Amino acid sequence: MNKKLLLIISISVLIIVSIIFYTANLGDDREVSRLTDKINDIIVVLDAGHGGEDGGAVSSSGVIEADINLKITLKLKDIMNLNGFHTVMTREDSNDLSDKSLNSISERKKSDMYKRLDIYNSDVHNVAISIHQNIFPAVSCKGSQVFYATRVSTGKDLADNITNSIVSNLQKDNQRISKPTTGSIFLLDNAQIPAVIVECGFLSNDDEVITLCDKEYQKKFSYCIFKGFMNTKF
Ligand SMILES: [Zn+2]
Hints:
Layout: H1 2-41, E1 43-48, H2 65-82, E2 86-89, H3 105-120, E3 126-134, E4 145-148, H4 154-169, E5 179-180, H5 186-190, E6 195-202, H6 206-213, H7 215-230
Parallel strand pairs: 1-2, 1-3, 3-6, 4-5
Antiparallel strand pairs: 4-6
Residues 49-50, 56, 65, 132 line the site of zinc ion (ZN).
């Protein structure tokens, strides 16, 4: 009788353990297949703002926005590629995309923006992340802020997730929330895909300039953007 009971208990335990294992593995499989779907479904357009004759903002110590933008964008590209994502860079060096045959700076700048927009909208599977640095007369202003395109609703999710990731990991005191563009940012206003601009920090704040130039901080910041991207369902 005792042997029978022991056998029943043993079989029951075995069944329960098997169910737990099976369910846990199912969870893992679903996780893996979700990641594989994401890798297959998305092309990440990485856009380092400015470049060429347009350096963007400049700090009092002479740090040029276009350079910081490129450094952070290249680090983000590495993280994306290491995790299996296909990326397209709008620029990979200090040059911009402008048509050099045009006569005026404003015409060349316009041609640069249209070429970037063409890359943004070149594939329905694109998700664009543009990297910039901020500047403001009040030098005490610091911290990042994310802006998003509103044509595709997931742009807001992406911006919110990137903001949350940056705030929780790097900038605990940052109270800024992500914002939609209001007709002032050409690329976001005309993007047909989920698109965000990450203003990483203020070049008008001397302390933040030092932080933004730090390679380790650039890596951490890029990873925060990646984490926000990973937390977004497209
Ligand atoms: Zn900029």
